[in-house]
Amino acid sequence: MDISRNLWNSSLEELKQGYIQESDSYICLLCGKKIEKGIIYPHKGTFYEAQRYIRIHIEDAHHSVFDYLIGLDKKLTGLTDHQNHLLRIFYQGKSDKEAQAEMGIGSTSTIRHHRFALKEKERQAKTFLAIMELLKEKDQYAPAFVPPHKTAKMVDDRYAITEEEQQDIIQRFLPEGINGRLKKFPPKEKQRLIVLREITKRFESSTNYSEKEINQILEDMYDDYVLIRRYLIEYGFLERKSDGSQYWLKQ
Q1: Is the domain 157-249 a CATH 1.25.40 member?
Q2: How far apart are CA 191 and CA 169, in angstroms?
Q3: By Cβ atoms counted within 10 A, which residue in 19, 45, 97, 105 is the most buried?
């Protein structure tokens, strides 16, 4: 399942609620967890139907959709560190005076100025979104770009990848598919991004791996598994404990 594609292709309402609905299930947009319909799920001594349970999952695993989205890289949110901090304070229900005291800046009028700037950013975002939606109806030559993975650490021109380019590169470096061997490690960063993203399909989400398990999975694909492991971490696909004892797919 391509979690990033689900996230970026969701509607505003779906993104706000944190999940999408399919014919037989609900899928968390934040981690890809699938909750099947028609099943009753137990949680802390109470039983819940699927739609209520997917909401409980989001609360337990991600605290809230707001917390998850505000924690994304600034390249994906478009927020400065200062704006990010302010929004977190506002979401906690704090007053302008409390926000001013916590941040130690200016006065309450300074906070109101920042609120105005954020509202202006919201208006701009809505206008831009409407423009892009209208453009889709007319721009018949627009290429289909592959959305960046939502744990990306640096979003720049290297992520300008079309679906056609992606398929060509995968075929060149992984001709036998994800279960085959990597012919060679790509020399260009755009190629590396595509290949590394494909390699992550060998891992299960929400599963912790030991370093030995990670190395075995990667060595099955490529002799220099240490190189692959390092780049998976560097590009934001894998996370690990500081002592290297556990690895997992970043969600």
Answers
A1: no
A2: 6
A3: 19
